[in-house]
Design brief:
This protein is of the alpha+beta class. The protein has helices at residues 12-32, 101-108, 158-164, 197-213, 228-256, 259-282, 289-319, 325-357, 361-411, 428-440; strands at residues 37-38, 45-52, 54-61, 66-72, 75-82, 87-94, 114-118, 136-138, 143-147, 171-176, 183-189, 218-226, 286-287. Residues 415-451 have low confidence and may be disordered.
């Protein structure tokens, strides 16, 4: 009983047309939105990660020792360093052990020199305190601790935050994590390329948000700034990196297989890269270094699929000599399809978990990977194989043309004017010499054999 073969080659033309239409759809989206949504990596500007959260505790230190505070993963830690660094004492407070912020504050205030001031609702759960995630020195300058908003009626959505920031100018804002966290990434481009843009922009953002939601309720989690020269250099390096990657892949496949295989694989990878650029532009996803990393990851993933299929095609070319090349490709792709689907599906499951539970830049990276795996699999099955069939058919036609030409040359007989007939009679000595000369001068097929001149008899 013969194995079932899926004839992919019969639908390769509609598949290629669909691929081209998807490319044009991406281009149309980019034109409609007037370009890409460039992050600060590729356009000079400021990116701030802020959180609107209720301030509950103000902590300061008035002693002579050095005290360091840090809040992370349900743990508040105080490190007291005294006697010029010779003594060290660490105090840890597990937040979930305290029902309210007031109970936690009472425990912390037992530390000598610590001054606490309760702010807002001190009956909130201590476990709702937001982590600082970095060690901070306590001094007379207070450190404010904030709690995640637990009142859904007071949630600040992205539309409210965007309308609040409109007076600053053209800003980009996106939500990070759950709505209850009220955490946002705010981006602002440096349109005038001023040197002190980051200072002015960050101050303006904090001032506007502080007026609306309270200055003590604004927590700055991260601030990034990229200058104009660095962003231009990074963009040029990204284009060069992708181009160099495709060139090295072309050389590698050329040496491992043949030139038609190399051209087919690069055509498939170029399609994947162009499609991903169109996808990012159509849906206005932020273009940053994570986007370039995602595209390069997808290119490598798609290349792996193509090499597996090409290996099977090369193997079947030796085993199935009686079949034409299109049928060999169909058989090879069909036999590789199960492995390709299982590998792609398992990878998508893992990346989907990152997309669901992550936030911010890594979430966009995971989305690009998921879409890229699907498109890369499609490209390996249809684009790479279609281009390979086209190139191999062209090579076979060219080879048949040269074979027929050689055959015609071999069967062609020289005309009477081009060749002289040997005389019927000759002396024994002359015939011996002529025999040696004839044996030494072997003519190529289709060419006139050189004939020596005969001496006249006296």
């Amino acid at each position: 009983m013969s194995e079932k073969i899926i004839y992919f080659s019969k639908i390769r033309i509609p598949a290629v047309i669909l691929a081209i239409l998807m490319i044009f759809a991406g281009i149309a989206g980019i034109i409609y939105y007037d370009g890409f949504n460039l992050g600060i990596d590729f356009s000079s500007g400021l990116s701030m990660r802020v959180q609107v959260a209720e301030s509950v505790l103000k902590i300061s230190y008035t002693g002579n020792d050095r005290v360091i505070i840090n809040v992370r993963e349900n743990l508040l830690q105080l490190t007291v360093i005294g006697s010029g660094g010779l003594s060290r004492e660490e105090k840890s407070f597990i937040l979930s052990d305290y029902q309210t912020v007031a109970a936690l504050a009472s425990e912390i205030s037992a530390t000598k020199g610590i001054v606490l001031e309760e702010m807002g609702n001190n009956q909130l759960s201590a476990s709702s305190i937001i982590g600082l995630n970095y060690a901070t020195d306590l001094s007379e300058n207070e450190v404010i601790l904030n709690c995640v908003n637990t009142n859904q009626d007071k949630f600040i959505n992205i539309a409210d935050a965007r309308s609040t920031l409109l007076e600053i100018g053209d800003i980009k804002i996106q939500t990070v994590g759950k709505a209850a966290n009220q955490e946002f990434i705010i981006g602002m481009q440096n349109s005038d390329n001023s040197d002190d843009f980051n200072v002015k922009a960050s101050a303006a953002i904090l001032e506007v948000l502080g007026k609306k939601y309270g200055a003590s309720n604004i927590v700055v989690k991260q601030t990034d700034y990229v200058g104009p020269q660095f962003s231009q250099s990074l963009g040029g390096h990204a284009v060069m990196l992708v181009s160099l990657t495709l060139l090295l892949i072309l050389i590698y496949i050329w040496f491992r297989f043949k030139l038609p295989y190399a051209v087919s694989s690069v055509a498939s990878l170029v399609y994947v890269a162009v499609f991903m650029v169109g996808f990012v532009g159509f849906f206005q996803l932020e273009v940053n270094t994570a986007t370039i990393a995602a595209i390069l990851t997808i290119v490598g993933y798609s290349l792996n699929d193509s090499i597996v299929i090409f290996d099977r095609i090369r193997e079947n070319q030796m085993l199935l000599r009686e079949k034409n090349f299109s049928r060999i490709v169909d058989i090879s792709v069909t036999k590789s399809l199960g492995r390709t689907i299982i590998t792609s599906f398992s990878t998508i499951i893992a990346v989907a978990a990152i997309y669901i539970f992550a936030s911010g830049m890594i979430k966009i990276f995971a989305l690009n990977i998921i879409v890229g795996i699907i498109v890369g699999t499609f490209s390996s099955v249809f684009i790479a194989s279609s281009v390979l069939i086209l190139l191999m058919n062209m090579a076979n036609k060219r080879g048949k043309f040269y074979d027929e030409k050689k055959s015609d040359d071999k069967t062609r007989t020289p005309s009477g004017s081009e060749a002289k007939q040997l005389p019927a009679e000759s002396t024994s000595s002359d015939s011996g010499n002529n025999e040696k000369e004839e044996n030494s001068a072997q003519a190529q097929p289709g060419q006139v054999r050189w004939q020596p001149k005969r001496k006249k008899r006296k």
